Amino acid sequence: MRIQAELVDGIDKLATIGPSVTIFGSARLGEQSDYYKKAEELAAKFSEAGLNVLTGGGPGIMEGANRGAHGKGACSIGLNISLPFEESANRYQDLSINFRYFFVRKLMFVKHAVGFVVFPGGFGTMDELFEALTLVQTGKIASFPIVLFGESYWSGLVDWLGQRMLEEGCIGPADMKLIQVTDSVDQAFRTVVRSYRKQPDDRRDNLPDND
Prior knowledge:
The protein has eight helices and seven strands; from the N terminus they run αβαβαββαβαβααβα. The chain has helices at 2-14, 34-48, 61-69, 102-111, 123-137, 151-166, 173-176, 185-197, and strands at 20-24, 52-55, 76-81, 95-99, 113-118, 146-149, 179-182. A seven-stranded parallel β-sheet has the order 4-3-2-1-5-6-7, with helices on both faces. Helix 2 packs parallel to helix 3 and helix 2 (34-48) packs parallel to helix 8 (185-197). The chain is globular, with a radius of gyration of 16 Å.
């Protein structure tokens, strides 16, 4: 009953938010990190373009993204979860929803997403990244861009995917194209917005043309 209640509550509270970009990243990379600043800058661009920003609602990269989106036009959303080693929800959320279960929370991350931008992070970030890749690969959700931000951080993983998973036949060449790696805020923004504009949805017309 608790699971059902959490699922219904999440779906109900997010029912009318519209298209959103989900931004993931480590809770441990705070204001001193360049990745925090880049997440803040990128989220501001999405919010100004009319796309909501979804994060895990915590500190670090999540705070940077919520901070950038907050007050810029669209909704800054935090999907918070209680953890024994993590601080409480950041204060830059227009809409804050609390979850007990990871799997319900992850459903909400993808339900309204038109793109994922994944900054450097730990096990939780990897879990969210590969869940999205699996759902897109298997056609369980509509395909959307998955951008890995930070070439030096992600290059080893991408190389391993190509040199091990691909060469061993565990994934196909098309699967490698599901991810894009960049250090550029503008490129990450354009990748998501251009993909969104191609969707058969009138909401895309609300986005500005000067991307």
